[in-house]
Amino acid sequence: MPLISPWRGDFPGILALQREGQIYLDSAATAQKPQVMLDALLGYYAGGAANVHRARHLAAERATVAFEASRAAVARWLNAQSPAQILFTSNATEAFNLVAYGLEHEFQAGDEIAISALEHHANLLPWQQLCQRRGLRLVVLPLDEQGKVDLPAAATLIGPRTRLLAVSQLSNVLGTWQPLTELIALARAQGALTLVDGAQGIVHGRHDPTALGCDFYVFSGHKLYGPDGVGVLHARSEALARLRHWQFGGEMVRVAHYHSAEFHPAPLGFEAGTPAIGPVIALGASLAYLESLDPAACLAHEQALHAHLLTGLRARDGVRLLGAPEAALASFVVDDVHPADLAQLLGDQGVAVRGGSHCAMPLYERIGLPGSVRVSLALYNDGGDLAQFFQALDQALELLR
Amino acid sequence: MSELPAAARQALASFSAASGWEARARLLMQWGDRLQPLEPALQTEANRVQGCESRVWLIAERHQQGWHFRAYSDARLLRGLLAVLLARVDGEDPTRIAQLDLADWFAQLGLSRQLSPSRSNGLNAVLARIGEMVQG
Ligand SMILES: Cc1ncc(COP(=O)(O)O)c(C=O)c1O
């Protein structure tokens, strides 16, 4: 059965790249955008821009209503109880930093923060630096052979000193779903807060942070077929109340005097300065688009593509997959071939994949590889993309070996 | 043209005859294979060029008659790029080397895409390092 994407035509970017002879297999870095998102972005600016939450004029009211409608759309997408649990940031990275600074006062020297060995730098460095500022210990949960957090090890490492657990939902390197239910239960049993990096997970299937039981859930709009410039922090109300304000300025302040001020609660209190109004509105359009699709059809398409990718990689001599990828992407190395060489020759043939250490340098250090090549998939990819990738891969390998 | 070192003239002749990514990749690998590996004692952090996804080492010595460079990488294509770079700069007159337009050199070889800012191969970092070395 040919793998056809019924949604490909909705994404002008993928079609434009195709006309240039480019095959886009790097959606885990950032996704192409549906036409409706582009329309919403242009519509907002072309229809008359205005700042939000301030003025009483028509344009401002329209912008504010649209902006807040996006917040409600994100809340719906995550099945949140209230839009007030949704904080907009500039990207996922800023959301991690918000939590790291917002919770800093809760930590005492000797406390522990647990992360996994596969975290993206964005969900590692804010905690590492917080540990350095406060004299905390960063505990790194090891992985099993498949590339999932090793639960028996986690059970011994998450202990009474653990104050926060911060882990990925879906690894951007290994494509493995992490055992979040079990990990969150371990952390909660110790009274620790929990944060989930949903940057990759959010793009594949629907997820409910409340049902997961995590305190914080983070993602970036640009990977979810939305614009760049918008990140989302979803927080449980009780956890939200524990965050201290971290960036100060307009929009987040309720009353200001020269020598003191009072601030808004969340969400506005954590959105200092003019937000990315156009992009936030456009993210709402991306979510409306995604909501209009048949989730079962999307999942089936993604699974079929992924299975095809894995089968093709496994069929090739000397190709070694990193871990046991379950969704969205696969990273691999080839015996006696430097991943940088392979990535370059794929790029030269118009195949857009990522080579390198994928913002997870400590993970590569631990597995002892100089990097890998990562192929990542999205709704708009099809069997033709994969066929061209495999052809390019074979050509590159023939040359390099 | 006539002022180019012999190795550079050779590089120019073979790369300008190459058309297509495959021919260029083959040439880069041939050139890279000729690069003499650095003995492990020289593969130190101090000699490492930072900012490359692959590991790259670069050593420069100033002699009376000119600069002598050695470089190596664990990635083959990058090794080829280093080889054609050294072909241009090795032995170059100390007073002239600082004025060399190395980006133009790669453009002449049809390799300017290797210098685009999004390329993580590290060639830009290598050029910056050479620039610092010959200034200092
Ligand atoms: C797992 C994971 N976490 C966090 C991020 C950071 O996202 P952003 O760069 O949009 O802040 C990424 C994106 O590369 C990611 O893949």
TrEMBL record, chain A:
Family per record: Belongs to the class-V pyridoxal-phosphate-dependent aminotransferase family. Csd subfamily.
Alphabetical keyword list: Pyridoxal phosphate, Transferase
Record flagged with keyword Transferase: yes
Gene3D superfamilies linked to this entry: Aspartate Aminotransferase, domain 1 (3.90.1150.10), Type I PLP-dependent aspartate aminotransferase-like (Major domain) (3.40.640.10)
Gene Ontology molecular-function annotations: cysteine desulfurase activity; pyridoxal phosphate binding
SUPFAM superfamilies in UniProt: PLP-dependent transferases
Reaction catalysis annotation: (sulfur carrier)-H + L-cysteine = (sulfur carrier)-SH + L-alanine
Required cofactor(s): pyridoxal 5'-phosphate
Keyword Hydrolase appears in the UniProt entry: no
GO BP, one annotated term: cysteine metabolic process
Protein name: cysteine desulfurase
One Pfam family linked to the record: Aminotran_5
Domain (Aminotransferase class V): residue spans on this chain: 23-388
EC number: 2.8.1.7
Residue stretches spanning the membrane: none
From TrEMBL, chain B:
Species, as recorded: Pseudomonas mangrovi
PANTHER family the UniProt entry points to: SUFE-LIKE PROTEIN 2, CHLOROPLASTIC, SULFUR ACCEPTOR PROTEIN CSDE
Domain of life: Bacteria
Entry's family note: Belongs to the SufE family.
Protein name in UniProt: Fe-S metabolism protein SufE
Domain Fe-S metabolism associated as annotated: residue spans: 14-131
A Pfam family matched in the record: SufE
Family matches, as InterPro entries: Fe-S_metab-assoc_dom
